[in-house]
């Protein structure tokens, strides 16, 4: 299915020949394509064809799959270990257990710090994992490049995994010192994760080298446009699929390891799987398309913004806003408009100015994401705790969280192969910004489901609003008779929200960033999850009985209101989607030369 390394086209030679119809003159073909070794012989669409022909995605090159395997192993280890964090922190060590295993009838646990401490620590871990990408992006874009930074990240994360095993070992898990070792492991693992996450996402998309749409005629006779933007969307769809394959296998395996063997095994197995990362990186090191570091571009971008804003400040805030958002704000800052007065530091071209403008607009879109992540983060702590208050019928309470990656594995190919192409076929443009809006809506729906379920848990539990701590006369936990599988609705809705919002966010960060700032813009997108984790700390007080209904209800309201405001804010930007994507089409030989100039700044 994937193309050969030297020819990334998914189409046969016959299909390529069919794409050059009789009405395409030699002059038109040569005039519409720059010979750069990537787009040679491909026919660019006319404006009429852009408006009328259906758009399809290209297939994914094999080297992208190699990177996806690295991500699969990393996510197996990340989610496989973190899925048991809630029980490890919250629940007490079962009587007589030296590994934390609860076995068939007991609840696995170790530190016994309670639900609020569990929510607080796991929220901190999420925050730390998504702050450190900013550092990883700076290192990659400025000094080491993405591939080298990923290699360092793997080494740091591996050290963190080894440290994590220590507090789970028999003889250590019984003592209070286990808390300190566990905290150190979280910090080291979070640093490695951040360095990794900022760079693996741009690296996989860069394996697809085409930036210009082209027309082909399929065997059915239909002429279609192969759109690089849709191809990048497909890359991230399957990248996310690999993420969730790793997450699903890791989480299921580790929840049973925790329950029937102990936490030491639940932390050791992810460490072993993580060793696949350096092995695959070593095998594929000569196959990957790599972007070299270009020096510190951020100061230049900030200097450009300062130059563009010159003379537009006013003591009147309304006037300042209008002048800062005027159509000519960036136009007047382009090098071609400076003439003989062009500053010496302005060594870039006009297109890079347009790309910086587009990148800042993307960062504006990301400003809304922290509220979305508030709903998603309930999956990592409160929904796991909710499952422990229901009838699990022998299942580990944290195994239900696997419904999310399981649903993603099912619905990602369905969306890519049927839903999205079907919408395009009937003329519905389900654009990136519309998908993100849909993510807010489905995320709100997941929280509504959880709030209603929590109401019935309180209603059916003998202790009512003290469901999490309800015990019988012998000290055994008493749970609601409601079957834990009723949680399925929340997890499936969260999965759809991820397809719409999370995957599209990765795609948007890559396609809207300047080429030499892709790691940075990706890190800004990931940083929104850190902001969300910080905001989540404000809601920790709602993360226990009897306030959990309020917790889920507030999340639902925030997601719904923010989604509405988001669409109001981006609806005009949505109409410019094709125009913004066209900026990438100029990055052939011209773009390479411009980037070489930027490297010398």
TrEMBL record:
Quote the biased-composition stretches of kind Polar residues, using this chain's numbering: 1-12
One GO location term (cellular component): plasma membrane
Is Membrane among this UniProt entry's keywords? yes
Residues annotated as transmembrane:
125-144, 151-173, 179-200, 235-254, 260-283, 436-457, 489-508, 520-542, 548-570
Where in or outside the cell? Membrane
Q: Which family does it belong to?
A: Belongs to the major facilitator superfamily. Proton-dependent oligopeptide transporter (POT/PTR) (TC 2.A.17) family.
The name this protein carries in UniProt is: Peptide transporter PTR2A
